[in-house]
Amino acid sequence: MADLSTLTPANKVDARAMACPGPLLEAKKAIGSVPVGGVLEIMSGDKGSREDIPAWCKKMGHEYLGVLEHDGYESLFVTRKK
Question: How do residues 29-42 score in pLDDT, each as one tens digit?
Answer without folding.
Answer: 999 999 999 999 99
